[in-house]
Each structure stands twice: as C-alpha cells, then as structure tokens.
Design a protein that fits this description.
The complex is a heterodimer of chains A (411) and B (282).
Chain A lengths: L1 H21 L11 E7 L3 H14 L4 E7 L1 H14 L5 E5 L3 H6 L28 E2 L2 E2 L2 E6 L1 E6 H6 L9 H11 L5 E4 L5 H13 L7 E3 L2 E3 L2 H17 L11 H9 L3 E7 L2 H7 L4 E4 L2 E2 L2 E2 L2 E9 L7 H11 L2 H7 L3 E2 L16 H9 L1 E3 L4 H18 L5 H16 L3
Parallel strand pairs in A: 1-2, 1-3, 8-11, 15-17
Antiparallel strand pairs in A: 3-15, 4-5, 6-15, 6-16, 7-11, 7-12, 9-10, 13-14
Helix pairs in contact in A: 7-8, 7-14, 8-14, 8-15, 14-15
Chain B lengths: L1 H36 L2 H8 L3 H31 L6 H13 L2 H11 L6 H9 L15 H26 L3 H9 L4 H12 L1 H16 L3 H6 L11 H10 L3 H34 L1
The chains are: A alpha/beta (411), B mainly alpha (282).
Pfam family, one (chain B): BPD_transp_1
Membrane topology (chain B): Multi-pass membrane protein
Subcellular location (chain B): Cell membrane
C-alpha cells in the first residue's frame, strides 16, 4: 500500500516537474555563458553578423537570437518583464522604457557610459527617454522621426514644381494630385502607434496653444487637437487623402506610394532603401506644418537588460559591443543615436538630409509617460471617427481632451 | 479489494485533478479578486461612451457567426453525406482546412482578401461588373463587422461539418426508406428525420460556437484592431486594449464580465450534455 502511495505521489511530482520544465520559454538561460537577445526581425540579418563578430572576440559567451515583430513586441516584453522570465538583452522602443523603469524591471546601465561611450556623444534628448535622474537604464542605438516623401513624376505631371512647405500648400498639392486612381496623400490610420505619433507632431505645431511634452507626458489642448484632426482626419473624409488610409499601416502606405496610388506620405528615412530598390523617382522634404516646417515626434530603439536576467554581466558585455560606433552604424536603418557613429556617407545624402534636419531642428520627443499609453485607444478611435465622418474635429477634440485630462490625473 | 482499487484510482487521478484545479481555479479566483479590489472600474466600464456599442457588437458578432457557421456547417455535412459525391475523404479534408490553419494566418489572408486596393473580393466584383468602385470592407463602419463575421464563419463551420457528418452517419438508412415508402419528400425527410436525429449535436455545436465567438480575438485584432472608431470592437478586443494601456482593474472587470457570459453558456452546455447522456443511457 505504502509503495503504491509513494508511486502515486511520485507520478504527481514528476508530472508537475515535467510541466514546469515545459513552461520554460525563450527567456534567458541560467548558464552564465549564454545570452538570449530579443531582436526585431528587421534587424536580424545585421544582428547575426554582429553576433558572429562578438562571439569571435568573446568565445566564452554564447548568444542566442530570438526574433520579435513590431506588432507583438510591446505585449511580449511586458509579459516577460512582469513574469520575471526574461531574456538577457531586449531591443525595445525608447518611448516604452520609462514604464519598465517605473516598475523597477531594468538593470541600471549607467556603468556602460564610460570615456569610450560618453553621454555627451548621444543625440540631444535620446538619454532622457531612458533615464531617471542621472541614471540611464538603457542604451539608445537608433533614432529617427518623420519627413515627407513625394513622387517627383506625379508632381511634374500635376504641374507642381516644389514640395509643399506648409499644410495649406500640402492640401492644395494633394488636391491637384487627386485624379483617377491617385490620391494626394496617404496616412497610416490602420496602425495606432503610427497614427497617434503623426497626430502628436501636428498638435505640437498648432498655431494656437500647441501640445507640449512635459517630462514625457503629452499635454494636449482642444485647439491643438482640433488643428491636427483637421489635417489627418478631415483629409480622408474630404477626399484628398486616400480612403485606404483607414486600413493601411506603414508598409501598406509605402506600397501605395510605390504603386503611384498616393503622391505623398509622412514616413521614416528607413523607407528610402525600399523606395530606391523600386527605382522610384522620389523626393524628400521637411514635414510641412501650419506656418513652416511641422514638428514630428522623434523616437528610437534601445537596448535593455532586464533586472531578472540571469546573465547580467555577459548581457552588459554584449550591449557594450553593440553600442560601439561601428556596430551602431551597422545595425541602424535610420540615424545612429551616437554622433560619432553618424560619419558614414549614407547618413549625409541629399535624400537623407531633410530627415537629419527634421531630427535636429524640428522634432519633439515622443511622449513616454504611461498617461500617453492610456490615451492611445481614445486618440486612435477619435482620429478614425473624424476620418469616416462619424465625428467633427470639434467633437473629437473635446472627447480627446476629456480623456487626456483623465489620463494625466491617473484615472 | 474494491476499496483498495478505489484508493489507487484516487491517487492516480490526483495529479491531473490538482493540475486542472490549479490551471482553472487560481486564474478565476485571481480575476475575481482583482475585479473586486479595483471595483471603480465597473463604473468606468458601464458609463464609458463606447460600452453600449461594444455590447451590441458582441451580440451581433455572436449571433451572426453562430447562425452562419451552423447553416454552412449543415450544408457542408449534407453535401458530404450525398450518395452522388465522389472522393468524400478528399472533400472532407479540404473542408477542414480553414479550421486547421492558424488563426493569425487565416485572419491575414482575409485581411488581404478584403483590402480595398489589393483585395481579391473587390477585384472579382469589379470584373463581374457587380460594383463600379471598390468597397471598403474593413474601413466602412457599417460593413466591417459583417465582413469579419464571414471570416469567423469560414473558420468555425468546418467544426460543425465534422460533428454533424458524424451524427448523420449514425442515422439508420431504414428510417429514410420507411419514410419514403410513406410518401415523404426531401423536405419532410429533413424536417422529421434528419434534424431531430442531430438535435443534440446541433445544441452542442451551437454552444461551443457561442463560447468561441465570445472569446474571439485574433481575426478582429489582426484585421482591424477593433476599428474603425470602435466599429468592430467586441469584449475580448476591449479587454486587450485595457491590457495594452496597463489598466489592470479594467482588464479584470472585463474578464469577469466575459467569465459570467461564458459561464452562463457553459452551464447550458453541461446540462445539455448531461441530458444527452441520460437519453443515451435510457
């Protein structure tokens, strides 16, 4: 009898152990010489080369790459950090870093900022997104914002000689371009993050009571929201922006542009590679604003080392390597976060120049306060509501303001 | 001897019981505890301007997708049962494909099918001259939920085909022959023999489909993320949005609401299963 009881308990213990073992994920290993790095799929090819170089110089450290995707990254990182089963290094969006710092989920990486990597070498504003006080909890490696892409052939056909510099000109040009299967401009209204970042840039450039970013928190006003909604939402409703905007993300908008279905769009400099691959006769310019260039929200990508990492020391070694100017230059598709890494010719072409000028002279940091995340669904829904004619800009701006006030109060 | 066997049986099932309990009771208690500790979220949820639209969407989504899957599933099962059909195994395998392929893949395929500019559906309708300009399936607030219901029906109808096919196979051929001798036509055979014989299967299928519909997320999120302007937001999508914004008390409250709705249908499901077992035993 005792033997049977023992056998039963043994089965229970083994089953539980097997299940718990089976629950292990792509998180870090307890092996001190192994580092798991979650890297976005667009960085994966270059990351593999960098890892090969790193392991050649550090044969005692084994690096395992796990590819992530933009759509699922925020959720995946949040779940991993909350559960405590984490990889050792994560490539994550800079604007999401503060929420992890607030929960004490990240390793303080201040010691990585040495003479070889001084904080003064980083672009202005990049470290603010990842720091609390004077302690930095991540290392930025790539920074970018938005500029205007326009189709030179379509412009010529419509008799437009110069890219628009103000929103009035943008609207006039878009109306001229909107003939047959072509529409003047396209927006990424099928993707929440892309939509609200474009909205925020326009709201921050509003002529009256512009929106501001105070310590990472977006402070909107009804007039600034209305001004932005009058452009993004109303352009779709009024027909000078493509109806496809409502179902398009960044990739789809770029494809519409390549197909000649839209004449202009606001995008990141990383799109240049794909546009040139398609032999587009493309032009770039500063983002048009209400009275001159518009501000656009600048954001970037950073390396995090979770506090729950089992191999902090090896992870820090990998991050140190990845943030050398050479490695940073190799991995970034936009502009490197360190000025010393931006010497390569590809950052100084005529087509890249407006994006560099936009970044240095006309950018505003993307909000990173948790209140912005809470506001996001309302913003996204209200912008769409204006675009489909369900709300006016005034009504939507009022709803957004109520939600923004509530989010700032922490309700 | 019998007593000893019972004890052995008890200990052998104990690990599974404990694991099942841990995997079901702990999350349920956790949701309840979180929902009640953040009970201010009940007020916020019920008074939020979009809540009534979410509930209407959820009801429409559930009713249409369940009815659609049942009708299509019955239709498919009848076809598979037809004596004129050749290669039944091949057809059955083909019909099951939508149910087998991963939800994200299916949703992405349909997102492209419904695309205003690149979609096959618009292209076919334009070529046939049925429409003169592309339909905005996924960005017209009056159409989007119906378009997504089609996808849910497409992915769940094979389950009904499978269940109903099995039930139809169990109907003795003699019943149909006897009814024909009595002068029954096709409709009468369906009304008085086929449908009563598969009624228990229909009930079980319907209740499973309701549970799936109430928990559906992938199709909507991949295709529209609940938009435009909340036109395709149902409860699970709302829950995910609350999760994304870090509103944990709201997540718990929405999860509790879903739990209650699912529990109501689960109760009906279990009762109908019990009745079926009792009928079989009798």
């Amino acid at each position: 009898m005792n033997t049977r009881r023992l056998a039963s308990l043994g089965v229970a213990a083994l089953t539980a152990a097997a299940l718990l073992t089976g629950c292990s994920t792509s998180g870090g290993s307890a092996d001190g010489n192994s580092v798991t790095w979650w890297v976005p799929n667009w960085d994966a090819p270059a990351a593999k080369e960098l890892v090969a170089d790193f392991t050649k110089a550090n044969p005692e450290i084994k690096v395992k790459l796990v590819e992530t995707t933009a759509d699922t990254l925020a959720n995946k990182v949040s779940v991993a950090l909350n559960s405590g089963t984490t990889p050792d290094v994560i490539t994550e969006l800079a604007s999401r870093t503060q929420q992890y710092i607030a929960k004490d989920q990240l390793t303080n990486l201040d010691k990585l900022y040495t003479d070889a990597m001084p904080k003064s070498d980083f672009l202005p504003g990049t470290l603010a997104d990842v720091s609390t006080g004077d302690k930095a909890f991540a290392v930025p490696y790539r920074w970018d914002n938005l500029g205007l892409f326009y189709n030179k052939d379509l412009f010529e056909k419509a008799g437009i000689t110069e890219p628009p510099t103000t929103l009035d000109e943008l609207k006039a040009d878009a109306e001229k371009l909107s003939t047959g299967d072509t529409t003047g401009i396209g927006w990424q209204l099928g993707n929440s993050d892309s939509t609200i970042l474009r909205f925020f840039g326009l709201a921050a450039s509003a002529p009256k009571d512009p929106a501001t970013n105070v310590d990472g928190a977006a402070h909107l006003t009804e007039s600034s929201s209305k001004a932005a909604l009058d452009i993004i939402g109303a352009s779709v409703r009024d027909g000078w922006a493509s109806k496809s905007s409502l179902e398009a993300d960044s990739t789809a908008v770029r494809q519409l542009f390549i197909n000649g279905q839209i004449g202009m769009y606001l995008g990141g400099v990383y799109d240049l590679v794909e546009l040139q691959k398609n032999k587009m006769n493309v032009g770039t310019a500063l983002a048009p604003g209400f009275d001159g260039p518009s501000k656009t929200a600048a954001n970037g990508w950073v390396y995090l080392v979770p506090k729950a990492s089992k191999n902090v020391s090896a992870a820090e070694k990998l991050v140190s390597y990845l943030t050398t100017p050479e490695a940073m230059n190799k991995l970034t598709l936009t502009f490197p976060a360190r000025t010393s890494a931006a010497q390569d010719d590809r950052f100084h072409t005529d087509l890249a120049a407006p994006f560099a000028a936009q970044l240095s002279d006309h950018s505003i940091p993307a909000p990173y306060d948790p209140s912005w995340g809470k506001l996001a669904p309302t913003l996204f829904a209200q912008i769409q509501a204006v675009a489909i004619g369900q709300s006016t800009s005034e009504e939507a701006a009022k709803t957004i303001q109520q939600a923004a006030d509530a989010a700032l109060k922490g309700k | 001897m019998l007593k000893r066997n019972r004890k052995v049986g008890f200990y052998l099932t104990l690990p599974a019981v404990l694991l099942m309990a841990a995997m079901t009771i702990i999350p349920v208690v956790s949701v309840l505890q979180r929902a009640l500790s953040g009970n201010e979220a009940f007020g916020r949820l019920f008074t939020s301007p979009g809540f009534s639209q979410v509930m209407v969407n959820t009801a429409l989504w559930t009713v249409l997708s369940v009815v659609g899957a049942l009708v299509l599933g019955y239709f498919g099962a009848m076809i598979l049962q037809s004596k004129y059909l050749r290669g039944v195994g091949l057809w059955r395998s083909l019909f099951l494909i939508p149910w087998i392929i991963p939800g994200v893949v299916g949703a992405t395929i349909w997102k492209w099918n419904f695309s205003r500019d690149y979609g096959q559906i618009n292209q076919v309708l334009l070529n046939m001259g049925v429409i003169s300009s592309p339909i905005e399936w996924l960005s017209d607030p009056n159409l989007v939920l119906f378009a997504l219901v089609i996808v849910q029906i497409w992915s769940t109808a094979p389950f009904v085909i499978l269940l109903v096919s099995a039930a139809l196979t169990g109907i003795p051929a003699e019943r149909y022959e006897a009814a024909r001798l009595d002068g029954a036509n096709g409709f009468n055979l369906l009304r008085y023999i086929t449908l009563p014989a598969v009624s228990a299967t229909t009930a079980l299928s319907a209740l499973t489909l309701v549970t799936w519909a109430l928990n559906a997320f992938t199709i909507i999120f991949v295709a529209t993320k609940g938009g435009p302007a909340g036109s395709s937001t149902i409860l699970p999508v709302l829950l995910y949005q609350a999760f994304q914004t870090g509103d944990e008390s709201m997540v718990a409250v929405i999860a509790l609401l879903q739990l209650v709705l699912s529990a109501i249908f689960a109760t009906v499901y279990i009762r109908s299963m019990r009745n079926e077992l009792e009928e079989s035993a009798a």
